[in-house]
Amino acid sequence: MSDVFHADCPARQVLDHITSRWGIWVLIALQEKELRFYELRERIEGVSEKMLSQTLRTLVRDGLIWRAVEPSTPPKVTYGLTPLGRGTGERLAGMFGWIRDHAFDILAVQADYDQASVG
């Protein structure tokens, strides 16, 4: 087993892809259902087409999502989670559920910290 704290650990590269700015959102969005490119772009506010395309390409290469192209004009491209991606997405959804449930608590602690730092 590799030590994830070492720079050459393969898990670090995969973790970088999963937890990239947009990778995590793609995996969570696809947890609910398969989506077309434009649906992902609309679902994930703030992502540019370029960054979404790049992120999708990386996650397909990693084997976390699949890509299906229907020949039409324009082509219909659909994305979904592979079994590896589903396992990752389930764990991310759990983490995000915890964050959602505790976000206001964390923000309150931040406000208290900031207030104490000013005084």
UniProtKB/TrEMBL annotation:
Native source species: Solihabitans fulvus
Domain called HTH hxlR-type: residue spans: 9-107
Keywords from the named record: DNA-binding, Transcription, Transcription regulation
PANTHER family, sorted: HTH-TYPE TRANSCRIPTIONAL REGULATOR YODB, TRANSCRIPTIONAL REGULATOR, MARR FAMILY
Listed GO MF terms: DNA binding
Name by which UniProt lists this protein: Helix-turn-helix transcriptional regulator
A Pfam family annotated for this UniProt entry: HxlR
Superkingdom of source: Bacteria
